[in-house]
What we know:
The structure is a single chain. The chain is of the alpha/beta class. It has a single domain (25-298), classed as 3-Layer(aba) Sandwich (Rossmann fold). Helix content is 39%, strand content 13%. An 8-stranded mixed β-sheet has the order 2-1-3-4-6-5-7-8, with helices on both faces. The longest helix has 23 residues, at 276-298. The protein is globular. The mean pLDDT is 95.
Amino acid sequence: MPENLFKVNMKEYILPGSRACQGCGLTLFYRYALKALRENTVITLPACCLCVLHGIYPKTAVDIPCLNNTFASTAASASGIVAGLNALNRTDTTVVAVAGDGSTYDMGIQALSGAAERGTDFIYVCYDNEGYMNTGTQRSSATPLGALTTTTPILTKQQPKKDFIKIMEAHNLPYMAAASPSYPIDLYDKFVKAKRIKGTRYMHIYVPCPPGWMYPARDTVRIGKLAVETGIAVLFEIEDGKFRFTGRSKTLAERGKRLPVINYVERQGRFKKMNLEQLKQFQTGVDNKWNEYLKMAEG
């Protein structure tokens, strides 16, 4: 049973009237993450969908201190905040860097890798909506094979999604986890744990995006659940090098009954130009990664 199922923080840190899109998966993730992180938390973020959610100065929909930074410098900004707080002996404040996949997989990888290698004491969160959604649904290296974006309008994306989680594994972090806003208690538990741990912690959040993925806003939670049910998004923790499945992914690993990826693909307009060969490659890639995780879970 999840550790915090019956003691979720009831305080709301996202106020009514944010500028996020209807059905935004980011809003769901952020709501429960902030509940877990609570007070004495500072957020730093780049120009992204979350920046839009926060709002325009001097008004904001979020009741947590926040610093805006440039696209590529989120981890560098977090490192600077940590250094400043240490100089003030403010060791009780949790620094959290939150960025999308474009700012993480692509432009911000250098600063993040450097901070992770140094073991700088902050939580880095990548909310992965598989594209540059805030600037018009352009392709990122997190965009999956066969997906339609505004910069792949004819042939779709021809390359598979970058395995960024494996890149972060190579940094030997004290804690990293993957979660989905469609499973909020699993997500909440992981942020509670991450707040207690020191060093660089990496959180990967799989965030459905209605306009970018081309599905009805009411289906966000369902799309997120299908991602997990098919094994495209895997719920897990790696703590001190030890891998374990969590939540629904743990049940699927024990029972071995994942859904075919077609159940996920067919509900999104971004895959409408995916051909049969790409679908087969997509399924094979998901199966191979799932088997890799099964081996890791066995130790």
